[in-house]
Amino acid sequence: MKDAAKRELLKYLILKEGSALNEIMLEFGLTKNEAIQLINEINSYFGSDVIISNSQGIYMTEHSKMQCYKSVFYGQEKLFYSHDVKDRYNLILIELVLNKGFSSLQDLANVCLVSKNTILNDFKVIKEMLAEKGMSINYSRKNGYSVLGPEFMVRNLLVETIKDIFHSTAGRIMLNEKGFVTESEIFLLRKRLEKVETRIGIKLTDEQLEELPYILQMVIKRSYNFKDNWSFKIEKYDIKNTVEYPEIKNMFWDYECLSEPDLLYLSLQVLASNMVESALQISNGDEISLAAERFINNIEIYLAIEIAQKSLLKEKLILHMGPAIYRNLIGFKINNPLTEEFIEEYQEIYNIVLKSVRPFEEIIHHHLSKEEVVYLSMIVLSWVYQTEETDKIFTGAVLCRSGTSISKLLLTTLSSMFPEIDFIGAYAVRQFKEMQKNVDFIFTTVPYESKQPTFLVPSILDKDSRIRLKSQVNMEMQGDNRMVARKLLESIKDYIHVDHYHIVGKKMEAFFQNIISDPVNEDEKQDEFFYFSIENISFVEKSIEWEYLVDFTMGELFKRNSISQHYIEETKEAFYKDYETMLIAQDIYLPHARPEYGVIKMDFQIHIFNSPVRTPSGNQVKVVVALAPDVNQKHVSTLIRLNNLFLDNELRLQIINENNKHAITQILNMEGAEE
């Protein structure tokens, strides 16, 4: 491609996540028609839409970026003339780890395209980062700089840094342009990984198949440049005993000078690094199975629910925790780019899961990382908010790069938003293409070309995103006559007999009223919380004996005809048998039983004791939340909020010490109203 304008536009789009048409017009001094023509000419040159242009903006997929880079710029022109500070840190670390000996200040400045003084300033931050990981920078005036630390930790640092670069704009191109890898090396390893998939029965996601060849090749480069003997232990879970290890080891049959620890480490990357859905056979599966049962039991207690399809949830947890055990025991850091976003959006469910993971932590003998807890929270969230079955009119699929728990969470959210769509599953893009499934709607977190209506959505849908998406999907349904006909036919299919014409008329009226309804109101219906009034608050001045605690605290619910006497008896049996599992926060207990034992309507009663009750184990009971749970789990949203509120030590003490019921209801209702 010799046209300078086309080359400059390609370079501009490769180095950006996305752009608007008016931004391109302003950047290059083009009219709207000129900009569109230039984009069309580039797509025509490549014979496909390497530049995607639609109502959501103008952007390129990572695959298209790499395709255009290799075709137009590779070996001819460099794309990067500067790097932001985060990319500089990563480039410095990779250069130091891969270098056979030491790197000079000038070497690092050349890689990062900055002055030596800038590199010296960057080193101040990098030294702190390494110190937190148990490593340091080794400096010699004669030789320069290198990373000093246990070889296992240095290699983990390298892997973590590569993954971080992959989340930068055009990160793959950056690694190629700096000469850290070559396309022939990456192509070879990718093809071998695809063969290994078949041999050992795993399916790598798009994200893994993109990242792993780079990780493996750069670890191999480190292995060749680091000749000292080294080793590491996997104690309980020995990867050598898996059926997968020999097959993966054979991937590297022609790479000379790789030691047994080198091959073991490379195999571990394939088996355990970020593979949250892989079913690995580990030697102590019963331990994880029992831990999964205890974890589910904790969730049920904290949320006062009976989880549906419990055996399937247990299977999914075991499937996830198998590789997670490997990751934690050997020190791999899982990559979950949505960690902070998820915690912000679902803080309450995260806190519930955080309290429930102890059975898994007892296996690995330390706390699970925040990223791991978020993945477990995604799994739990998808199970807690199960929607009831409705007639399905259309079909849909969810696509993302990883095809893992992130997309499964999105699948659950979308299923609840669009009950008329039968979602066939959540897939990595490559998996979906291979399946060749025909669906009516595609929801994707990455750009995807399709003849079907396709919606580019964020991995976590906040309230505004849900409202916009509902509007977009409804407009698509209304704008397609075939979809309108299918929806109308489904609506009246049971009433097409001549004697039911008046019913048909009502169904049509309801149908047309539904498609123009306000999506904001529909969305708000999903987020209903129990409203606490002063009648739901009790100040208990007198002393209560332990054996009468349940009878006393359930009294108000019984008076309001929310529960039966049978429910009280069932609660007493469950609570006095295992009351410690019903402790939801310090000194706060949640006695309850299953709703089918006599709940008439959902209800709460908060009892605050002036004289704490003593449990048989000697602990104090300062607050009791008496609960009548809803059979359809409508109490869960409120209970999650209460859990989160009581975990806030300041708010918990404020409620315990408050003597004004109105003030307490304001605190309780404020937490629910904020959403």
UniProtKB/TrEMBL annotation:
Keyword Transferase: yes
GO molecular-function terms, A-Z: kinase activity; protein-N(PI)-phosphohistidine-sugar phosphotransferase activity
Localization (cell): Cytoplasm
All copies of domain PTS EIIA type-2, residue ranges: 530-671
Domain PRD, chain residue ranges per copy: 180-280, 283-390
Keywords assigned by UniProt, alphabetized: Activator, Cytoplasm, Kinase, Phosphoprotein, Phosphotransferase system, Transferase, Transport
BP terms from Gene Ontology: phosphoenolpyruvate-dependent sugar phosphotransferase system; regulation of DNA-templated transcription
Domain of life: Bacteria
Any one Gene Ontology cellular component term annotated for this protein: cytoplasm
InterPro entries with a match to the protein in the record: Ascorbate-PTS_EIIA_comp (IPR051351), Mga_HTH (IPR007737), PRD (IPR011608), PRD_sf (IPR036634), PTrfase/Anion_transptr (IPR016152), PTS_EIIA_type-2_dom (IPR002178), PTS_EIIB_2 (IPR013011), WH-like_DNA-bd_sf (IPR036388)
Free-text function comment from the UniProt entry: The phosphoenolpyruvate-dependent sugar phosphotransferase system (sugar PTS), a major carbohydrate active transport system, catalyzes the phosphorylation of incoming sugar substrates concomitantly with their translocation across the cell membrane. The enzyme II UlaABC PTS system is involved in ascorbate transport.
PANTHER family: ASCORBATE-SPECIFIC PTS SYSTEM EIIA COMPONENT
Name of the protein: Ascorbate-specific PTS system EIIA component
Organism of origin: Lentibacillus populi
